[in-house]
């Protein structure tokens, strides 16, 4: 028995296509909301070879659903003018965090949004 047999194998590396698609999933949230992350997650959720893409599409979907809730609350609160500030802050957070997540996903890193309600596990 060699020492190699006692070691765990390294985790599989992500393909460049998965990294690029994860980048697009995160960035698509800026313009299209939760639609693209939902489609990518539904297509790849049962494929064990797409674990990275599955994880990142769930993360983007959870973030976009959280933002949708914030936008709804902000729209309701716009009657007392604070909702405009809430929606503006959510919009800026969407742009900045989606770009950060996309860049991390392009490198093959697992990214977690700082404030996303994990509705889909």
From TrEMBL:
Tell me the membrane topology, using the record's own terms: Multi-pass membrane protein
Highest taxon above the source species: Bacteria
Q: Which UniProt keywords are present, listed alphabetically?
A: Membrane, Transmembrane, Transmembrane helix
Q: Does the keyword Secreted apply?
A: no
**Subcellular location field:** Membrane
Q: What InterPro entries does its record include?
A: MamF_MmsF
The residues that cross the membrane are: 20-43, 63-82, 88-105
Protein name per UniProt: DUF4870 domain-containing protein
According to the entry, what is the taxonomic lineage of the organism?
Bacteria, Pseudomonadati, Pseudomonadota, Gammaproteobacteria, Lysobacterales
């Amino acid at each position: 028995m060699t020492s190699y047999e006692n070691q765990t194998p390294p985790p599989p590396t992500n393909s460049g296509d998965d990294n690029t698609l994860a980048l697009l999933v995160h960035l698509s949230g800026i313009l299209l909301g939760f639609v693209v992350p939902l489609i990518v997650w539904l297509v790849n959720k049962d494929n064990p070879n797409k674990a990275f893409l599955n994880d990142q599409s769930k993360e983007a979907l959870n973030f976009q659903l959280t933002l949708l809730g914030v936008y709804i609350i902000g729209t309701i609160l716009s009657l007392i003018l604070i909702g405009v500030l809430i929606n503006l802050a959510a919009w800026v957070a969407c742009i900045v965090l989606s770009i950060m997540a996309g860049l991390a996903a392009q490198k093959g890193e697992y990214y977690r949004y700082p404030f996303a309600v994990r509705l889909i596990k």
